[in-house]
Input
Amino acid sequence: MFTLRALAKQFPNGTRALEDITADIQAGEFVALLGPSGCGKSTLLRLLAGLEAPSAGQITWDAGHKPGPGDVGFVFQDATLLPWATAAENVYLPLRLRGQSRAETAPLIETTLARVGLAEFAGARPKALSGGMKMRVSIARALVSNPMLLLMDEPFAALDEFTRHRLQEDLHHLWRETGKTIVFVTHSIYEASFLASRILVMSPRPGRIAADIRASVPEGPNRRECPEYIALVHRITETFRRVMPL
Amino acid sequence: MNQLRERLAPFVFGMLALGLWQGSVWALAVPSYVVPGPIAIFNAYLSDYAILNPALLSTLTVTFTALLAATLLGVFLAVAMAASTLFRAAIQPWAVILQVTPVVAIAPLIIIWVNQPFVALVVCATIVAFFPILSNTAAGLAATPPELLDLFHLNGATRWQTLFLLRLPAALPNFLTGLRISGTLALVGAVVAEFVAGSGGFASGLAYRIIEASYRLEIPRMFAALVLLGVSGIIIYAALGLLERFLLRKRNAA
Output
């Protein structure tokens, strides 16, 4: 889908956030950017979204994949919903910004909310929703414009573990169903191992790709216990031990 | 039960204080041209309301016109400052200077320069009232969550869409806080301007009546005018509080 070639980012204050990032991402992959705080993984996500420009190197999009407005769905660490708008109005927002009317998009909003399990909460305002539900609305908002690329910046980090597990399962299921390309930033080895089809392990200051691991954890209800999952967690832990010695 | 008691507490306290005041005035036989009791003040209002009510209306007209002008000016400047850092750099220090200069000091100049008395009073009261709206709205606009700005950007939002669908609604709570402060300040500004203008020979507001009454040693009438001002201030503050609750009811609905 796109290729990163020798990508680097240096901030005006001199901090080198990223250096020599080279990777080739295929359409339909679920890529986890995994690394400790300060390894530049969020910055890499912002470069992909076009919210910031790289200081060196380039992002090359495959033919027909160059994203325009609304082609990139972004989910932030906080749900960041409009507090004055209902769940349905929040999901409508990206469509509204591109001039689509509420009436013509009503069925789409309804199915998108249903897809994240919130069909009955269309009229609820953020204050009435739990943290997990707000995050579901946020994911629905990112999905509603049917983006070809979904970027997620530690979206589950602020949730409790039970809610997080549910959302991880639902997100993984959603990816399998839709085949969307997802780039997911996380600092949890377990989260990356459970969710992703490919894990880019990043080392900090400046951020570099320390390992590029293809995950092959079989689908099924026992994903979190199966030997392949445990072996993957182990392998990533070993990688970190190697690139970040104590 | 406790809630009811807390609601009644200020009234009970007020009645007690009034009773104590009236009692002391009677017991010590203080002449009413020094300290009138509450009953004398009430009687002064009953006999002078034909003078006091139009004066109150005049002061309130200045107050609300100034509050409206302050709202338009404050919001416009705040939006312009949020849109352009150069404009912000150029305007901000002057807004602060205007705010820290006591209006009593500027009022005589304004009254000389603006020869239409009503306009002069409104200008003075606006100068006093606009700053809380400006600074609170500016703070609200600046505190728009950066993630939401990114989201609008990613979806190709125009500047106007970002302003009307995101920045202004996001700044609404701060604006309303500013408006509430400005509401009472507009009244203060109107009264101060009337004081200055009153000595210049025109005006018909409550402040002018207070000065007039003090010259004539009609102290009960002076107090009656003061009470009207105080009650007006409380009503303005409470009404703007209700407006705030009404406008924010959606986002506070759990």
Observations:
- Chain B touches chain A at residues 145, 147-148, 150-157, 161, 165-166, 169, 172, 250-254 (CB under 8 Å).
- The radius of gyration of chain B is 22 Å.
